[in-house]
Amino acid sequence: MPRIAFVVSSAREIDLRDSSKRPTGYWAEQALTSYELFAAAGADVVVITPDGNAPVVDPYSLEPIFHYPEEDRGYFASVYRTFRRDPEDIRITLQHLTDPELVASRRIARRLEVAGKTAAEARELVSRAAKAAWQHNRRLIEVMLAEGLDRGLAEASLRGAVEDLTTVACALSQDRKAQLEDIDGFRFPVALSELSGEQLGEFDALFAPGGYASMVDLPGNPDLARLVSILHAKGAPVSALSHGPALLLAAPERIDGQWLFEGFRVTCCTNEEEDQNAFGRLGMPWYLASALQNAGAILDDAPYPWTSHVVVDRNLITGQNLFSTAATAGAVLKALGLR
Question: What are phi and psi of 64, to 5 degrees?
C-alpha cells in the first residue's frame, strides 16, 4: 500500500497589497477530490501540516461558482466549443467559466425542450446566445430576451434555471466542506516538524493541494526541504497542484549549487490566472509562476488559461489550476502503479 504524504498548509491568513490578513486556507475541492481518489485507489494517505495545526478551508474556495456540477460544466463546455474554432480565437477568463447564466446553459436548454424544442434546437439557441454574451460582455438571459432566442419562454423560467444551478452549487459546496471536516486527518494532522528522517523515508509520494495558504508557510520551510530531498533522492513522485507547487521553493540546492529542480518543467497557477480571481484583484504579494521560473524551473503552462493541464517531468508532477485536480491526482496514481 503506497504511502502518500498529503501536505496541507495550516496558514489562515495572507497579506495582500490591498488587504492585510486576508482569510485563506486550502482549496476545498482540490483537497477533497485528490484525497478521495488516492484513498479509493488503496493508498495510505497521511495528512501533514508544517506545524501539526489543523488546516482550514479557504472561504473563497467555498463560493458556489467553484462547485457547479460536472454535467453543467460539461454541457457549457460543449456550448462554447461551438463558437471557438481555436482556443486562441477568444479570451477565456475565470469570469466566463464561472458565470452562473452561462453555466446554466444545460438547464435553460432543458426548459426550452419542455417548451417544445428538440434537444438540437435548444442547444443551437443557447449557443447563439452564449456566443453573443461572451463576445460583447452581455448577460446570457438579456441576449436571449432581446434577440428572441427565448422562443417565448418566460423570463422567470430562464432565471429559475439559473437559481436552480446556484442552489445545487451551494449545497455541493457545503457538502464538500462537511466531508472534509469528517476526515480525521484534516482534524488531527501529523506535524511535519516532528517526523524523523527515517519516518519521512517511509513515504512513497508527496502531494500538495492548492489554496493561497500554500504561499504562506510552505516556501522555505526547512522540514519540507527534508521531505522533498528524501523523496526526490529515491525518485518518488513529488507532486503539487495550483498554488501547491509553492512547496518546491523549499527545496534545497544540489551539490553543484543549483536548485534541486533546476531545469525541470513545471506548471502552477499562472500570472494571468492569478490576476483574474478575487485575491489577484486585491494584489498578490508575489507571483508563484514567476518565483518558480526565477528559481530555475521551466514554466510549462497551457496555451490558454483555466484549462486542465498536468506536467510530468521525471518524478515531478504538477497541475496548473483548479480544473486540473482529477488529472493531477490521476498522474500521481499512475506513477505509483495504482492506475
Answer: -55, -30
Q: Are 261 and 225 in contact (CB under 8 A)?
A: no
Cα separation, 113 vs 118, whole angstroms: 6
Among 248, 212, 218, 211, residue whose Cα is nearest residue 231: 248
DSSP string, 128-192: HHHHHHHHHT--HHHHHHHTTTTTT--HHHHHHHHHHHHHHHHHHHHHHHHHHHH-HHHHSPEEG
CATH of 3-55+189-335 among 3.40.50.1100, 3.40.50.880, 3.40.1260.10, 3.30.200.20:
3.40.50.880
Residue with cell 501547491: 244
> Could you give the residue range(s) of every CATH 3.40.50.880 domain in the chain?
3-55+189-335
Q: Which residues pair with 47 in a beta bridge?
A: 6
**pTM higher than 0.85, yes or no?**
yes
- Residue 301 neighbours by CB under 8 Å, 6+ apart: 267, 270, 289, 309, 320
Q: 270-278: list long-range contacts, CB under 8 Å, 24+ apart.
A: 270/299, 270/301, 270/305, 270/320, 270/321, 272/305, 273/94, 273/305, 273/306, 273/320, 273/321, 276/93, 276/94, 276/95, 276/305, 277/60, 277/94, 278/60
User: How many residues are given for the chain?
Assistant: 339
CA atoms of 16 and 319, how far apart (whole Å): 24
Q: What is the pLDDT of residues 114-153, one digit of tens each?
A: 999 999 999 999 999 999 999 888 999 999 999 999 999 9
Question: Is residue 228 packed enough to be buried (19+ CB in 10 Å), middle (13-18) or exposed (0-12)?
Answer: buried
